[in-house]
Amino acid sequence: MLKKWTNRKTETDYPLSEEQKELDPHNIPNHVAIIMDGNGRWAKKRGLPRVAGHREGMNVIKKIVKRSSRLGVGVLTLYAFSTENWKRPKPEVDFLMRLPERFLKSELPKLIEENVQVRITGSREALPGHTREAVEQAVEDTRNNDGMVLNFALNYGSRNEMVQAIRQIYSRVESGEITIDDVSEETVASALMTEGLDDPDLLIRTSGEIRLSNFMLWQLAYAEFWFTDVLWPDFTEHHFEEALAVYQKRTRRYGGV
Ligand code: FPP
Fold this sequence. Notes:
Low-confidence stretches: 1-8
Strand order of the largest sheet: 3-4-2-1-5-6
Largest sheet: 6 strands, parallel
CATH class: Alpha Beta
Bound molecules: farnesyl diphosphate
Mean pLDDT: 94
Helix content: 40-55%
CATH topology: Undecaprenyl pyrophosphate synthetase
Number of domains: 1
Distance between the termini: 27 Å
Shape: globular
Number of helices: 8
Oligomer: single chain
Strand content: 5-15%
């Protein structure tokens, strides 16, 4: 039994039949968050530099954004760069920091047309000027759109976010704006960088890694998790819909019965 478990592939819970893959349009997860992993391994397998995997990964984003928006997903959060990713070789970091501009250059008009609102979750201060300007422009240009929120987690780390939230709440208490007894789950949620966004309902992580990597530790408390061995550059709309179909088969109890 143990052997069976350890050998279990991460992809889906169990293979779904074609019929089971049919999506119920009334049960589309409102917030889907994705840890897009495996770009480096995808490139290595092909004898290409790691950045080739990131470029291909960017192209996958285009397809998944469109499909999510058409399916009626409310928020799509993509973990694009973590607070730990600065440890990577400088040429790779530089390349990653150019991707938002490259993506937005071709996609922003389409996002506007699709009524998508761009949002950024993470510390903007440390981003290079060109990256920051590109993303802030996109946020501004799509501010009034009321379709899907495309939320890029960029220079984001959950522990860093929590430290900032604690500082913010402490200063509100210290200034007398609120008392310590006023601090509730809502106070904490609204001090986080995801303020105003509902928590993710579904978390997808590609590439076979089964960990959270400092991603939305508070917000994922009741999310359903779906892991796949597929590397992010190989991820398709078909895999995305499969994740949603598995989500729709799960029973969410939120600690109840
Ligand atoms: C993880 O794969 C991926 C990243 C750290 C970067 C993800 C970024 C993109 C997919 C493109 C971002 C584009 C925009 C528009 C923001 P990895 O490099 O850790 O892969 P590995 O584990 O196989 O080495």
